[in-house]
């Protein structure tokens, strides 16, 4: 079936949705985006994602050129045209066609729908293996398109028998490239780094949802504290809550989803129903 | 007159030279490039630029898919088709159309020709005003498309009455976003940072050309040493040698091109004739 995308002012057959090579995203890696999923055909946490999208654009001196209401209207139409339930929608805003290839121009807005593979029960039980790497993302609170480092790191991640990387900087753990990091202490306290991170929507929702059942804190986690974690997990729109079962080859929680992590998954799922 | 670009396997009218939005440059800011200028219709330092292009691609796990000879053949044809002397040519290699929007795919190769404005004598005399900023480029030896930081910094640069930014990290001066930095000491020694920089072609050529007339050194420059500089200048393909006449509002060399800098400009120009 024909899939549609939206560029700037109109819908276009997805296979024809192209951007001229003089756009600042291709020339200079300059752009922002956001991503949310659909439950059936209903966007999940759409207001939070749109708020962050406008924040990212504003921080990067990019003019969205549409109101939140206008974006919602386009999204409704796109969802209706594509009939692609339980998928993901990405909104990208680039630096535009710059005459000198450097100054910001009129941004290009690209909205597209894509396959979204929920994790299996087996995957959720097996969890994810992380390897630490010293790096601080540029403009961490902004959801830019800059994923140079994690894509460059893919071979290194494989060499270390890991699935993803956990960044740290100045001895402080920050985040994974596409997800936020949490650990559970021996006292069942839930801690997630506060500074120099992207403020994930799933992270924020989880902190709200579980605050009445658990002691939660946004505070620094040192590299050394990783080895004391009883459990650890990551959160993101695509993974929701995914257990971390090893860091730098050291097994956590016997290599499976821990009791607290499972409880959090239940609480999160219940809150969404 | 019709201008042409080259994408992957063929020439295409430049205004139609588009890339599908699923390319990793648009999705994840992942790509490398190189840029050289034409003197008339003759490429300047082409071998050096192609060497660096292949180095950048290799470092980023991107497969060029063409030999150096094949690229030269395409460049010759493009130059002949466009009849656009004294212009600049950019070769870009992106992460390609990735099925999952994250893993590297078959790269897209884009070759384009663009206007190239040589600096006027007045500009060369007036020089450039820099403002320092603490930042270390990711993978500094690789010419990636990542210019997030300097484009984001444009308003700040204007606020500081400067023309460009000079990066430093751990108290050590490194480079400007699109050029290498040099200073001249009171003893007429020429110093340029050695580490954590892009190895500019003009920088390399200049060091070779002037070594018999001046004491030159690739070594650390601390932030504090900036205030002791008798002269300073930057080098790049577009600017060749451009005097730096102030840093953080402090005038250097009475705000004009210094004697040593002018001598270096002469030596460089003579060597190219």
CATH architecture of the largest domain in chain A: Alpha-Beta Barrel
| Overall spatial form of chain A | globular
Instruction: Provide the CATH superfamily of the largest domain in chain A.
Output: D-amino Acid Aminotransferase, subunit A, domain 2
How many helical stretches of chain A?
Answer: 8
For the largest beta-sheet of chain A, the strand count, sense and barrel status come to: 10 strands, mixed
Strand content of chain A: 25-35%
N to C succession of SSEs of chain A: EEEHEEHHEEHEHHEEEEEHEEEEH
Span of the ends, CA to CA of chain A: 31 Å
Total separate domains of chain A: 2
User: CATH topology of the largest domain in chain A, anyone?
Assistant: D-amino Acid Aminotransferase, Chain A, domain 2
Number of strands of chain A: 17
Q: Classify the oligomer.
A: homodimer
Write the layout of secondary structure elements.
The structure is a homodimer of 273-residue chains.
Chain A (H helix, E strand, L loop, with lengths): L3 E4 L2 E4 L4 E3 L3 H5 L2 E9 L2 E2 L2 H14 L8 H15 L5 E7 L14 E6 L6 H6 L1 E7 L13 H5 L1 H6 L4 E6 L2 E2 L1 E2 L2 E6 L5 E3 L8 H10 L5 E3 L12 E6 L3 E8 L2 E2 L7 H14 L1
Parallel strand pairs in A: 8-9, 8-16, 13-14
Antiparallel strand pairs in A: 1-2, 1-7, 4-5, 4-6, 6-7, 9-10, 11-12, 12-13, 12-15, 15-16, 16-17
